Amino acid sequence: MAMASGYACCRIVHRRLGRSVARGSPEVVMSRMSSRYPLFYDQLGCGNSDRPSDTSLWTVDRFVAELVAVRAALGLERVHLLGNSWGGMLALQYTLDRRPAPESLGSRMVTIEDASHLCFAEQWDTFHAELTDFLAEVDGRPAQPTA
Description:
Elements: E1 9-13, H1 26-33, E2 37-40, H2 60-74, E3 79-84, H3 86-96, E4 105-111, H4 121-139
Parallel strand pairs: 1-2, 1-3, 3-4
């Protein structure tokens, strides 16, 4: 399912652990609005995905690794990435782990309903500092192609 040149796929990271993207949600609305090829998948422990009882798997790094694995498995060379709430946090971490942003990552669209996913003040301070640096870096870059 490799896509042709251009940013043909919009990867959508759903917003809440334990919730499938198949149930009515903002992601469904976005898919109907998109002229791209929206890609939804159920994260670990959600919807039709595995539901392991091993709590050591429930880490941000693990969920970001899922993003990498899905993209690699489908041969998605160039994508836009949309994350909402928890998915927004994962989309940001995915992008922060890949600085400077690769050409293969078009736009990063993130909505965060709250920062409750960051449980400790230290996590928020680190996240905020990295996000500020990242946004400054992005502002200095030329616009990415959209077609």
